[in-house]
Write a structure and sequence with these properties.
binds zinc ion; two-stranded antiparallel ribbon; 3-stranded antiparallel beta sheet; 5 strands
Length: 147
Amino acid sequence: MLECKNCKSVKVVKSGKARGKQRYKCKECGYNFVIGDGRTNEKIQALKALCVLLYSLGKGSYNMMGKLFRRDRSLIYKWIREAGLNAAEPSIDGEITQIEFDEMWHYIQSKKRNFGSSKPLTAAAGELSPGFSVVVIAQHSDDSTTR
Ligand SMILES: [Zn+2]
C-alpha cells in the first residue's frame, strides 16, 4: 500500500511532518515524501465536488457557493459546467479518497456560526463515488435556489 515514490520500496518509515502532513522516509533509498502530492489540487477537487453536489441537489446557486467558498461565481459556474462536460466519466480518480476534509469542515462550521442560528440549515449527504461520501451542512441564503 505505502510505497516509496522514488524506488517503490515498501520499507518506508514515518519521518516527522511536512506542512501538517505525515512525512515518510524510504529506508531503501532515503527519499523523503508526503502522501497525496498536489495538495492544492486535491483541495480544489474537493471544493469542486462539493459545489457540484450542492448544485445537483438544488441547494446552491453560483452566487451562494461563491460567497460560501470565497470564490468568484464565474469560477463556480466554470466548475459546474466542467463537471457537466466530464459527466460521462464513470469514476473519480482513486486518489481523491485521500482528501483531508478537516479544514473545509471547520471552515463551513465557522461560517455557520457567523450567520447565526435563526435560519434553517440544510444537511445534504451524498456519495459521489464508492468510498467517497460527502455530508454538507449549508445555510439557506436569500439567493439560493430551491427546487
Ligand atoms: Zn525509495
